[in-house]
Design goal:
The complex is a heterodimer. Chain A has one domain: Helix Hairpins (Orthogonal Bundle), CATH 1.10.287. Helices cover 72% and strands 0% of the residues of chain A. Chain A contains 4 helices and no strands. Chain A is elongated, with a radius of gyration of 19 Å. Chain B is an all-alpha fold. Helices cover 65% and strands 0% of the residues of chain B. Chain B has 9 helices and no strands. The longest helix of chain B is centred in the first third of the chain and has 24 residues. Classes of the chains: A mainly alpha, B mainly alpha. Chains A and B meet through α1, α2 and α3 of A and α1, α2, α3 and α4 of B.
Chain lengths: 114, 220
């Protein structure tokens, strides 16, 4: 089953999106966004994977050893860092929403704004 | 829009997404059959060119250094955004109404949590420092080393030692370190410009390639 990892990607993405649309708590919603973004890690690493290859670190192995694609790994690293930044910013917004409206329920937030 | 309506829209859209996704998968090379030349080329040339054994780090700081510069400033702007959003407004009071309710005590950190986290702080610092200082030997060593080191600070906070945590991370100092870090990456590139080379060109000597058993150059 050579496309199984890509099915996992779609599943993780769908589960995260379902969580976002049905969530009744802003922090829970942010966690769901993290789940959505996690699917991109699986996709990136899955695209670069080579059967039987090692991690692209040539410290104690010869240079011609088959290794997985380092470019997508670097992209996944960028992805993780950006996700951390986005999560921090969103959590700060959630704190601010709770300060101003006294609730973290998206439904009630909308009612407050009319 | 009610919850059930929203769920229906999601199911319809999700079905469409699934159809297009499966259609797209048909043309994709299977898992484990990496097609592209880029990864193989980078793996072959990175160590001789950059003298770095971690090719992922070589990609980030050499081949995609300009992208990393942009990413770094995304992080910097996000940190600035968090600081701006969470700043103390003048008319804002320190505590919320719930915290001021009478007969309500802030629950103290339980002894078990404090014990375990305090016991883990030392080993976490050692492991983090080990990973960061041996970054060339393990996949993404520097990155995970930094994260493990940062976890030690969070453990201090989790142990309920907020005063210690505050003393460990003075805001003015961390702000300065953050700004110096962001600025010096850009400055390294400008130093290359000053020496007559292109932006972010390596002007410093590359040093020797670290190797455990056989130096990679000789084993080719």
């Amino acid at each position: 089953m050579s496309i199984f990892p890509f099915i996992v990607v779609a599943w993780v993405l769908a589960v995260g999106l379902y969580g976002i649309i049905t969530s009744r708590h802003l922090v829970h919603q942010i966690v769901c966004l993290i789940v959505v973004q996690s699917s991109t890690y699986i996709l990136l690493l899955g695209v670069g994977y080579k059967t039987g290859a090692v991690a692209p670190y040539f410290y104690d192995i010869p240079l011609n050893t088959p290794a997985v694609d380092p470019v997508v790994q670097a992209l996944a690293l960028t992805d993780v860092v950006v996700e951390a930044a986005v999560t921090a910013l969103l959590l700060a917004f959630a704190v601010q929403a709770h300060k101003r409206f006294g609730t973290l329920d998206p439904e009630e937030l909308r009612q407050l704004q009319g | 829009m009610t919850q059930s309506q929203r769920r229906w829209i999601f199911l319809v859209a999700g079905g469409g997404f699934l159809a297009f996704y499966l259609w797209g998968l048909i043309g994709l090379p299977g898992f484990g059959h990496y097609p592209g030349p880029y990864g193989d080329i980078i793996n072959a040339i990175a160590v001789p060119q950059t003298h770095a054994t971690g090719v992922v780090s070589a990609v980030n700081f050499e081949y995609r250094a300009f992208d990393t510069l942009g990413e770094e400033f995304i992080l910097f702007i996000a940190a600035t955004g968090v600081a701006t959003v969470l700043r103390h407004l003048r008319q804002e009071r320190d505590t919320s109404a719930v915290d001021e309710a009478r007969n309500r005590e802030v629950p103290a950190t339980s002894d078990a949590v404090a014990m375990v986290t305090l016991a883990f702080i030392g080993p976490t610092v050692v492991v983090g420092w080990y990973l960061a200082s041996h970054a060339q030997t393990s996949p993404s060593g520097g990155f995970q080393g930094g994260i493990v080191l940062a976890t030690a600070f969070v453990l201090v906070y989790l142990a309920g030692q907020f005063i210690v945590f505050k003393r460990l991370s003075p805001v003015a100092l961390t702000d300065a370190i953050e700004a110096i870090g962001a600025g010096s990456f850009a400055a390294v590139g400008i130093a290359a410009l000053a020496s007559g080379a292109a932006y972010l060109t390596n002007i410093l000597p590359l040093g020797s390639t670290p190797g455990a058993v056989t130096p990679p150059e000789r084993s080719r």
